Amino acid sequence: MSVTWEELGWERMAAGVGRCRLPGWDCTVGLVVGEGTALLIDAGSSLGEGARLRAQAEAFTGHRVTHLALTHPHFDHVFGAAAFAGAEVFGAVGIDTVFTARHAREELRADAVRNGLEADSADEAIDALVPPRHHVSGEWTLDLGGGRQVLLANVGPGHTAHDLAVLVPGSPEVVFCGDLVEESGEPQAGADAVPSHWPAALDRLLDLGGEDALYVPGHGAVVDAAFVRAQRDALATRFGVS
């Protein structure tokens, strides 16, 4: 590898596993390196940001991003997806309805503009947005070669109706949570959230990772199991769920 995580401005989580916090919306993107393969977790908030992420991943790995996992269908996580042409793209089952239904696409664009994305960038991303090829209904094991396997788990609904988590086994284990977990602010529950199921989704995250895992939120600093459990209890109280 020709550059280090630090030279890219990324945080190393474990061997071959890193993440970065993007400017603007403090959205986390993850990278898992296999043998001749690379899995990117989320794609940034615009085609330009996606292209920058692709260039960074290629500079680090020496080859293209071969797999892309989208944790949920919000603009700051998916609008860069079209920059990864040729990658095998994964999302939770049902996510294609957000990518294809006219009203859902219009709301996705409107949400991006409301949150400060330039209208031209939003239009460009929407025009290029296509549904993931692979839809995860339960769990899906990706073999990235070199002994590296990654588990994609449909743990939602919760933050949205289509929440996907990514477990990277190792020492430590790393769980990419998407916006099911947020550290830099209170978890956001929009019109597409399913509050009644959100605490159960966090229970599934904890079952996946266990007590010693590193949990990577969609926004904010890396947290531990105790933080996830506390956020689970706070959400249960907030939404009146046992």
Explained architecture:
The model has no long low-confidence stretch (mean pLDDT 97). The chain has eight helices and twelve strands. It has a seven-stranded mixed beta sheet with strand order 1-2-3-4-5-6-7, with no helix packed on it. It has a five-stranded mixed beta sheet with strand order 8-9-10-11-12, with helices on one face. The protein is 32% helix and 26% strand. It has 242 residues and is of the alpha/beta class.
Number of helical regions: 8
Q: Helix amount, in percent?
A: 25-40%
Beta strand %: 25-35%
Q: What is the number of beta strands?
A: 12
Gyration radius from CA atoms, angstroms: 16 Å
Biggest sheet character: 7 strands, mixed
Structural class from helices and strands?
A: alpha/beta
Q: What is the overall pLDDT average?
A: 97
What's the helix-strand series? HEEEEHEHEHHHEEEEEHEH
Low-confidence stretches: none
Strand line-up in the sheet with most strands: 1-2-3-4-5-6-7
Morphology call? globular
Q: What is the first-to-last residue Cα distance?
A: 48 Å
